[in-house]
Amino acid sequence: xxxxxxxxxxxxxxxxxxxxxxxxxxxxxxxxxxxxxxxxxxxxxxxxxxxxxxxxxxxxxxxxxxxxxxxxxxxxxxxxxxxxxxxxxxxxxxxxxxxxxxxxxxxxxxxxxxxxxxxxxxxxxxxxxxxxxxxxxxxxxxxxxxxxxxxxxxxxxxxxxxxxxxxxxxxxxxxxxxxxxxxxxxxxxxxxxxxxxxxxxxxxxxxxxxxxxxxxxxxxxxxxxxxxxxxxxxxxxxxxxxxxxxxxxxxxxxxxxxxxxxxxxxxxxxxxxxxxxxxxxxxxxxxxxxxxxxxxxxxxxxxxxxxxxxxxxxxxxxxxxxxxxxxxxxxxxxxxxxxxxxxxxxxxxxxxxxxxxxxxxxxxxxxxxxxxxxxxxxxxxxxxxxxxxxxxxxxxxxxxxxxxxxxxxxxxxxxxxxxxxxxxxxxxxxxxxxxxxxxxxxxxxxxxxxxxxxxxxxxxxxxxxxxxxxxxxxxxxxxxxxxxxxxxxxxxxxxxxxxxxxxxxxxxxxxxxxxxxxxxxxxxxxxxxxxxxxxxxxxxxxxxxxxxxxxxxxxxxxxxxxxxxxxxxxxxxxxxxxxxxxxxxxxxxxxxxxxxxxxxxxxxxxxxxxxxxxxxxxxxxxxxxxxxxxxxxx
Length: 634
Hints:
Layout: H1 2-31, H2 41-53, H3 55-63, H4 70-95, H5 98-103, H6 105-123, H7 128-131, H8 135-150, H9 157-170, H10 177-190, H11 195-212, H12 217-234, E1 276-278, E2 284-286, H13 287-295, E3 314-315, H14 317-329, H15 347-357, H16 363-377, H17 381-389, H18 393-399, H19 405-418, H20 422-430, H21 434-443, H22 446-459, H23 463-471, H24 475-484, H25 487-500, H26 504-512, H27 516-524, H28 531-541, H29 545-551, H30 554-566, H31 569-583, H32 587-595, H33 598-608, H34 611-633
Antiparallel strand pairs: 1-2, 1-3
Domain U-box: 259-333
Pfam family, one: U-box
Catalytic activity: S-ubiquitinyl-[E2 ubiquitin-conjugating enzyme]-L-cysteine + [acceptor protein]-L-lysine = [E2 ubiquitin-conjugating enzyme]-L-cysteine + N(6)-ubiquitinyl-[acceptor protein]-L-lysine
């Protein structure tokens, strides 16, 4: 009987010790993970600390030599399940997809919350006293459990900003320059610029897709879409993300048993180099691969992402000799060099050919040419100058009236991109594109309408064009886009209307065309996030008596006071400016605003608002003082 008890005790201790060793191993693995991704970094570090706080308890349990109650063993098994989930979560935050971590922020916070709940549940009712755990360790663990109960994972400002940027990029048209800048900023924040960074992200996403097994298809599609955008922006040739991630050296398929030294492989193709050359950063590549990279107008090192101070290629003779020696030793035959490429066509020659093809009699050639011109026009100021100086603007303007919706959309977007440069903007204006752009704004595809509105905004930077757009009946279709367009369409329309209504005749046209009603609706739709844009246009329209008459409704005054109370600093600034404009011409509206409690909000803006907001608040105070003197005299 005594032997059976001793055997049972040994088995009991062994079970406990095995579980405890596993738990300690998980904690040590979590400690060694190092840096976490930028997203959820604070929560990851917090969870890492919570796991470390369990170490003193686990070490005491490991050293116990007494019979452990079954309820304690149950707690340890629950703790093991919680630790496994915590380790998996930390691993995702350490080496998971950067895109996934930002896009699925809410889901990640829920996972942290679930881990905290499971840790707390595992420790609930732990028999510290019965098994002889020291008072100090008990207090430490109970304090941790209390903190876990209070812990509520929240998205910090940096994560919120990244999520907002990612949604902007997800909706972005990569052919529009301003939105390419958004992709560039996000790529910099996430460190998804270089060939190596994007290769690693692709491998991680591919693993994620396989793990999901078709579940959450919509979220997976968004992740792949974003990865493609980053790759296109970096100039990397596209491949299906579900394909095999590891580029296979074709020459090794027959010699799978041979392991080639990694330094013999080109970082771009991952194939053995036959003609290794050194670039300005000191990195080595296969000559043909790096030359193709440079010919595609890249000015950075593919592996490091550093700027190349020059594009000269120096043969890496030492490495070439080592490769030859290795091949001879291993009886491995290098593949023959590809035949020399045909004479290089310069970028200018390519652009000139594309411009000539814009006037082709064959529809497919025209479509291909205008699509390429659209892409080139967004790349750089030098590219836009190249198109303009080689006569690309007149055929693009002619294509605005071509009876093909896609050609129209590509042409108007190319002209939009070209007009970003002030000098080229004038060249575009000389070709009189405005009537045709307005026609597309009225009858084109959704994308064409949006880009037409953006093009009118760009061209209206020239004062004569403001008058021409208004006289050409360009304001009604902008108001229509403001009413019926997509979120981006509404923003493009509002931006264009703002610029156009700087002109007094256009204020009249906008008011008569019914612009105020959709602008007021935009203020009520929080999903649009266009309060500042709408208020900025309304401020301009309030400069006209008819605009003030339509805006001088109590409901609108109440709306302005609401934004002055709870809006962003910019919202408060814009709302103050509009209220001041209306009250300067109607003291009754000021009295109404006071009844809605505006006074304390004006005080707050005068002290804590933006510089312009403080000025507007001070002017509203002056109006209030004048009103007090008037009332006291009467």
